[in-house]
Please model this.
Amino acid sequence: MTPRHFVIGMCCLCMLASIGCGDGSQPAPSLVPIQGVLTQAGKPLAHVTVTFYPDNKKDTEGPSSTGVTNQAGEFQLMVAGNKPGAVVGFHKVTVQCPMMTSGSTPEQQAAAKACKISPDFGNPEKTTLTAEVTAETADLNLEVPAQ
Model:
């Protein structure tokens, strides 16, 4: 390969790489701070991971938001980069039992053993839990059906 071919190849590579980059003019999605309480049979669920997935089928676009419940079942949603909130629109909501690890506290281990959430609720394609986030939404109460 001659130096001329190398330069031409690098120019082509740079042009191809820049095609999908865009100009950054796409506005960031609107986020609304969201907190809530997760219960099952009226009782709070502790140490459970709650994730809101924007529902593309209902024209909601943006990043997912995640939170972990405390002992009272309370959670706050965060998007990547530790930004509080969830995207405005419709969401599929997943909930997953805590996992027991060697570093789990006795409280976390007890919550993992007591957790009775169907694995379907941990899958965004199978969950039946949904939520709508609007500019006025601040507090959500979510009830997970008993297994």
Observations:
- The first strand starts at residue 31 and ends at 32.
